[in-house]
Amino acid sequence: MGKSKPIGSKRFNHNGYVQIKTAKGQRRWPFEHRVVWEATHGPIPPGHFIHHINGVVDDNRIENLVLCSSNAEHHRKFHHSRPKGVSRGEGKPKSPEHRARIA
Predict the structure, then answer these.
(1) Which residue in 28, 35, 36, 66 has a CA-CA distance of 20 to 30 Å to 56?
(2) What is the 3-state secondary structure (H, E, C) of 4-51?
(3) CB contact at 8 A, 30 and 22
(4) What region does 42 belong to: left with phi over 0, alpha with psi -120 to 50, or beta?
(5) C-alpha–C-alpha distance, residues 26 and 5, integer Å
């Protein structure tokens, strides 16, 4: 017997998004937030994507998901109020020791 995971199994990708196995023999697992959205609202239109309202990418409750029609709309609605100088991917603040090493 192989090592295949049962349908409904979950895993995290390298960006922290949850993927879920939805069919036997599946090589690519869909993102759980897309599966949850489509189960409630139907197919996601081409060019649209799902945004996590609270920014927690593994919180896939339907009340935390919203459909965005474009990247521009997404940034205008959800990231416009971000403080100046703070961008996605900056990570946690660096320690004084780390700052001294990279300076």
Answers:
(1) 28
(2) CCCCCCEEECCCCCEEECCCCCCCCCCEHHHHHHHHHHCCCCCCCEEE
(3) yes
(4) left
(5) 10
pLDDT digits (tens, 9 = 90+) for 10-62: 999 999 999 999 999 888 999 999 999 999 999 999 989 899 999 899 999 99
The answer to whether 70 and 47 have CB atoms below 8 angstroms apart is yes
Contact 68, 34 (CB under 8 A): no
Could you give the CA distance from residue 68 to residue 45 in angstroms, rounded to a whole number?
Answer: 10
**Helix (H), strand (E) counts: the chain:** 3, 4
pLDDT at 90: 52
Phi first, then psi: give them for residue 91, nearest 5 degrees. 75, -165
Check residues 103 and 27 and name the one with the higher pLDDT. Answer: 27
